[in-house]
Write a structure and sequence with these properties.
single chain, 201 residues, five-stranded parallel beta sheet, alpha/beta, 49% helix, 7 strands
């Protein structure tokens, strides 16, 4: 095993956490919608287009509410949900800042363009990441192998010299197929323990 040079982190579900439950369950609760409908819509082509900045927030929110047969007035709930129902895990951020002294750190996220504004106001991660690769900027989405290849090129290391952490197993498996060391996030303590085991080899 080659020495690890870089650690690549997902944003939502790893560094950015919902105030309770999961992204999907909390959105279902806020809208008063069935969870299965939310899960279907979050996996839709329109959601991918939103994440690569091909459609804007208003267009995506209209799509969601039309599919759910809900009034457009609920767009205010969606706007609040995206910004106010999530927080940066400060303990995780502190750990990332600590390991950044020895390893390159990167943020690899599927996220629409409003992420950049929110990271200047509410989701502040200043200095924690050497690189930020967002789907809205690169027009690629996890688990497309191309987004991992691009990320490795940006950070300047081989697949086996990196670790990728994501809360979605499908995204981690895709990275592992390229030779990246993968960790599926389940909790902060589990993730840090698993990462330390890899870094200390």
């Amino acid at each position: 095993m080659k020495s690890i040079k870089a650690v690549i982190w997902d944003l939502a579900g790893v560094v950015l956490q919902p105030v309770k439950g999961t992204f999907n369950s909390l959105l279902a609760e806020r809208l008063g919608a069935p969870l299965k409908d939310i899960e279907r819509l979050i996996s839709s082509k329109e959601n991918d287009l939103w994440d690569i900045d091909e459609i804007d927030d208003n267009t995506y929110y209209t799509f969601l509410l039309e599919e759910l047969k809900m009034p457009m007035e609920k767009k205010s709930i969606l706007r609040k949900f995206v910004l106010e129902d999530f927080y940066i895990d400060q303990e995780m951020l502190g750990y990332i800042n600590k390991i950044r002294k020895s390893f390159t750190t990167a943020l690899l996220t599927n996220f629409p363009a409003h992420m950049h504004d929110f990271m200047k106001t509410d989701w502040i991660v200043d200095g924690a990441f050497d690189h930020i690769i967002a789907s809205c900027d690169v027009k690629l989405i996890k688990p497309d192998p191309a987004i991992y290849t691009l990320t490795l090129a940006r950070i300047g290391c081989l697949a086996e010299e990196s670790v990728f952490i994501d809360d979605r197993e499908i995204n981690v498996k895709a990275a592992e197929k390229l030779g990246v060391n993968g960790i599926v996030y389940q909790s902060r303590s589990q993730t840090i323990n698993d990462l330390e085991a890899i870094l200390q080899k």
